[in-house]
Structures are given as C-alpha cells and as structure tokens.
Design a protein that fits this description.
Blueprint (H helix, E strand, L loop, with lengths): L1 H4 L2 H9 L11 H5 L6 H19 L17 H11 L1 H10 L3 H21 L7 H25 L8
Length: about 160
C-alpha cells in the first residue's frame, strides 16, 4: 500500500535514509511532495536538471572525458569537484559498514552542492573552454548521482 500511495523510489530512499537500529515513522505526505522538501525528489531533480542542460548543449558527451578543468576556479565549482572526489571512499565505507544511509546523505549533499553551483554560474556560456569544463563537471555530477541512486535501487529520471 505504501508503494502505491507514494512510489517505489520514495519508499526505498526514505527507508534507506535511516540507520537500521533507529525507529522510523514514514512521512507519506512528504514522500508524495514534488518539491525540494522531499529528499528523493531533490536528488532526482538534480539529475534531471543536469540532463536538461546536457540536452540543451547537444554535443558529444564522450568528448567531455578529456576536457581541461582548469577554468573551473569558482568556489562553487571547487566545492562540487571536492565532493565528487569523496564518492569512492564514501561508497566503500558505506559498503563495509553496512550503512546505506551514508549513500543517501551523500547524494542529498551532492544534489545541494549541484543546485548551489547551478544557481551561481551559467553553464552554457560563450567561452568554449569554460563551457566545456562546466559541462564536464555537471556530466560527472550526473554520473555520480545516477550511480549512487542505482546502488540504492532508485531511478535517476532524465526528465521530471
């Protein structure tokens, strides 16, 4: 019934957001909201927002793998890159500690960092080197969001 009222993604994300030894009351009203208060919506929306930017650009995403990231000097870009670099260690620690809630916390933090970056900087700018560096950064962010959600068994929609 809970899945029918909300969604499979909301149920999984919400339940995995808590340590297994803590009591939890499932907030159905929050789980059905389509806004930033709903943590699974917030993370999925960050992924969809990036997919929209990449679709607007329309270029070859594979070419972004070799882009020079040195033009990314802003505080928001640096923060996003540092957070992306923490993903492998976080995932290893979460797996070794049987702590899927660490993955949900990380994904929420990454989504917040991306939204902050998106609000601070235009990605599709005229300066080609800067545009490609920004696109590479957001494409990497989308990949980590998609991978983290997949670990949890939650979808990563490209449109919302």
């Amino acid at each position: 019934d809970l899945i029918e009222w909300t969604s499979k993604d909301a149920v999984r994300f919400f339940l995995l957001s808590r340590k297994p030894d803590t009591e939890y009351t499932f907030d159905v009203d929050l789980a059905v909201q389509k806004n930033n208060d709903n943590p699974v919506y917030y993370v999925q929306y960050a992924h969809a927002r990036i997919c929209s930017v990449l679709a607007s650009w329309g270029g070859d995403r594979q070419g972004l793998n070799t882009v020079d990231l040195s033009p990314l000097q802003s505080q928001q870009a640096q923060a996003l890159m540092l957070l992306l670099a923490k993903y492998p260690d976080m995932l290893t620690a979460a797996a070794e500690g049987f702590a899927p809630h660490d993955v949900t916390f990380y994904l929420r933090e990454l989504a917040a960092c991306y939204h902050s970056y998106y609000d601070a900087e235009r990605i599709l700018v005229d300066d080609e080197a800067l545009k490609l560096a920004r696109l590479a950064l957001v494409a990497a962010t989308a990949q980590v969001l998609r991978n983290g959600l997949a670990v949890l068994g939650v979808s990563a929609p490209e449109k919302m």
